[in-house]
Amino acid sequence: MKKLTRRELLRNNFISAAHAAEKDETSKEPKWAMVIDLAKCIGCDTCTVACKSENRTPPGVTYNVVLTEEKGNYPNVKATQVPRPCMQCDRPPCAQVCPVKATYKMTNGITAIDYDRCIGCRYCIVACPYGARYFDFGGTYEQEMLAYDEVQAPEYGTQRGKRGSKNSPTSVTRKCHFCYHRLLRDEEPACVEVCLGDARYFGDLSNPNSIVSKLAKSPRAFYLKEEMGTHPRVIYLK
Amino acid sequence: MSTQLTVEQKMTKTNKKNPLTLWYVFLVILLALGAVALAARVNGGLGTTNLTSSMPWGAWVSFYIYFVGMSAGAFLLSSLIHVFDMKHLRKVGRDATLVAIISMILALCFILLDLGRMDRFWHALWYGNITSVLAYEVRFYGIYIVLLLTELYFSLRHDLILQAKGDGLKAKIARLLKLGSKDATEEGRQKDWRMLKILGSIGIPIAIFGVHGGTGLLFAVVKAQPYWNTALFPVIFVVSALVSGTALVTVIYIIRNWATGELVEQSLVKSLAGWMILFLVVDVGLQVFEILVGLYGLEHQEIATLFTMFTSRFSWSYWGVQLVIGVLIPILLYINSRTRNSTKGMLVAAIAVVIGILGVRFNIVIPALTVPVLPGLPTGYYFPTLVEGGTSLGVMGLGLLIYTVSARYLPMDTKANDIT
Q1: Quick one: which of A42, B57, B137, B226 could link to B61 by a disulfide (CB 3.0–4.6 Å)?
Q2: Measured between alpha carbons, how far is B335 from B326 in angstroms, rounded to an integer?
Q3: CATH code (residue B228)
Q4: CA pair distance B173, B154, nearest whole angstrom
Q5: Cα separation of A184 and A80, whole Å?
Q6: Is residue B150 part of a domain?
Q7: Residue A1: which pLDDT band, with cuts at 50, 70 and 90?
Q8: Are B30 and B363 in contact (CB under 8 A)?
């Protein structure tokens, strides 16, 4: 029997963890993607709120935002809403520039950050063409929200104890990870689950029969800042 | 023996206590201020700054590239002197090398302050990423500092041996720093010069492409910021490094010789200033190209960045600091033959350039980050906090202190008879 190196062993474990999220154990590892139908988005910001409560992000850290762009002059004004999670680019500029490989591509398509390796240089924040990365300056909602500091979200499936403890991801960069900890237990990302207009779809882009694969081929499909060459895994529908 | 005598004589000359004591008091105040600010920074993390996620880099990063540039510029000047045998400039060779070392130390202090997790600074060396410019830069800085220290050693070695004779603190320090070398012959000195030539030749490409061009590249590869994303950008970095490095060496040469009561060579100052103005003109020309290409590109984010620089409430740092102080005043002072031939005139010109380049560095970092990368994202706003300002003053105070102490105890002066 071929001996496994430690790296292979870790990777295999990782893959099987991700597989657990899929019903079919024999299928290839999913490649997660999200589709956002702008025609269905009503700009209610529910996704933003759900994201904040799911990931218990501190002040100034907002993995998902709904951008409002006003077009035209009064009285002929039209506002368009563009929800913006992390694009989970297949060619991520953030991972390209990270000096310590704290941010990297997981095999399931998610761009992850290793909170225990990040040195907080913020080069990735500067390099992200979507402004999707946030620095955790150590703020807290303790004043507004009772017991906010008591527990942190188990991001990437890791328990990080109380906020402000040694393990909290403060003074490092944070970002949306498609709620990876939810995917591990077979749940959709929080923003997808709560979307009022059902504007968000989530699934496996490597499966040609998945709804995201079908929608990705729609003539309405486009990517944010496609000219950046980043190959996002978040697909928008006009 | 005669050399030693002159050293002694100079020591007595330097001992005009008052101005020096005042200078040390000033440095101690700067350092104390820095220490208080540093304590606040360590306790409060980056929350003590005015940085945000939309404005992730600020004063510390600007100072970092400022001092990297200063270092690379001063080093390139010293290398040009050694490699191309510019004998008339040899007198500032040691100053240039020392300034290069100190500036690089300051640059690293600034980038350390800027790290969210200062305790993980070693990750930058332990881990790596083959696609990250910053990962290469960190290593280049290490190689570069070692190279600079070696170069300083070989340029001082001969005089350290002379200084090591006798007793007193200066001799003791020299005995320690000469690293056991005993060869005080003329041949040994020729060997040193050859060594300096070799080190300079290795150092020039490292400084140009690795250290400073690389720091420019760090910005230039960021496609998300179109204002930085040009191949000319690292070139401008190197040229402006030469401008600021030459200017700082000029300032230091004049002030050090005034402070020690030595004669300031007017022809040397004029020659240095000439190089400085030449580099400055090239720098401005390249920047004009850069801005024109940006404007003609009609790319929204780039134009917004340029207009932030030209018209925002901080545009004084562009028109006032960068252009009037950093370009107009030094060029006018150099054109006017009366100021060109006066040490004071050229000192003012060089100080103006040193200040002006600071404006250049801030205007590289801040305006580009002010403009949101997607419509609807918040527009950045940044002005440094007292903690950022205090730590910056402290770090600069540290640099001045290292310089003052080094200049006092190391044989910084190349004797007239050394220049053969």
Answers
A1: B57
A2: 15
A3: 1.20.1630.10
A4: 16
A5: 33
A6: yes
A7: very low
A8: no
In sequence order, the β-bridge partners of residue A67 are A82
- B416 in any annotated domain: no
Give the span between the Cα atoms of A37 and A231, in whole angstroms.
18
On whether any CB of chain B is under 8 Å from the CB of A135, the answer is: yes
A-contacting residues in B 124-183 (Cβ below 8 Å)? 124, 126-129, 131-135, 137-138
Query: Which of A61, A97, A122 lies closest to B133 in CB terms?
Result: A97
CA B216 – CA B357 distance, rounded (Å): 14
| Structure-block tokens of residue B37 | 């600010």
Q: What is the pLDDT of residue B101?
A: 96
Sheet holding A234-237, edge to edge: A200-204, A32-37, A234-237, A221-222
User: What pLDDT, in 10s, does the model give residues A140-193?
Assistant: 999 998 899 999 999 999 999 999 888 899 999 999 999 999 999 999 999 999
Confidence check on the interface: ipTM exceeds 0.85, yes or no = yes
Residue A227 confidence class, pLDDT cut points 50, 70, 90: very high
User: CB–CB of B307/B300 below 8 Å?
Assistant: no
Contact between residue B368 and residue B382 where contact means Cβ atoms under 8 Å apart: no
Q: How far is B276 from B309, CA to CA, in rounded Å?
A: 25
CATH fold of A6-237: Alpha-Beta Plaits (3.30.70)
Full domain range(s) for residue B46 = 2-411
The two tokens of residue A170 are 């403060």
- Grouping H, G, I as helix, E, B as strand and the rest as coil, residue B274 is helix
Q: In one letter, which amino acid is B38?
A: L
Token pair 């200049």: residue: B407
Contacts of A97 in chain B (CB under 8 A): 131-134, 221-222
Interface of A with B in 142-161 (CB under 8 A): none
Phi, psi of A111, rounded to the nearest 5 degrees = -90, 115
* Strand-pair partners of A83: A66
pLDDT tier, B170 (very low <50, low <70, confident <90, very high otherwise): confident
Query: How far is the C-alpha of B326 from the C-alpha of B307, rounded, in Å?
Result: 20
**Domain annotation covers residue B418:** no
The torsion of the CA quartet A178, A179, A180, A182, rounded to 10 degrees, works out to: -130
DSSP chain A: -PPPPHHHHHHHHHHHHHHHHSS-TTSPPP-EEEEEETTT-----HHHHHHHHHHTPPTT--S-EEEEEEES-TTS-EEEEEEE-----SS-HHHHH-TT--EEE-TTS-EEE-TTT-----HHHHH-TT--EEE------TTTSTTGGG----GGG----STTSTTS-TTSEEE--TTHHHHHTT---HHHHH-TT--EEEEETTSTTSHHHHHHTSTTEE-TTGGG----SEEEE-
How many structural domains compose chain B? Answer: 1
pTM: 0.90
Helices first, then strands: H and E counts in chain B: 17, 0
Residues of B in contact with A82 (CB under 8 A): 374, 376
Q: Which amino acid is at B135?
A: A
Has residue B419 been placed in a domain? Answer: no
List the 176-235 stretch of A: residues with Cβ below 8 A of B: 224-225, 228-229
Whether the CB-CB separation of A63 and A175 falls below 8 Å is answered with: yes
Query: Residue B275 has which token pair?
Result: 């190089």
Axis crossing angle, helix B343-370 with helix B59-83, rounded to the nearest 10: 130
Helix/strand/coil for B263: coil
pLDDT over 70 at B124, yes or no: yes
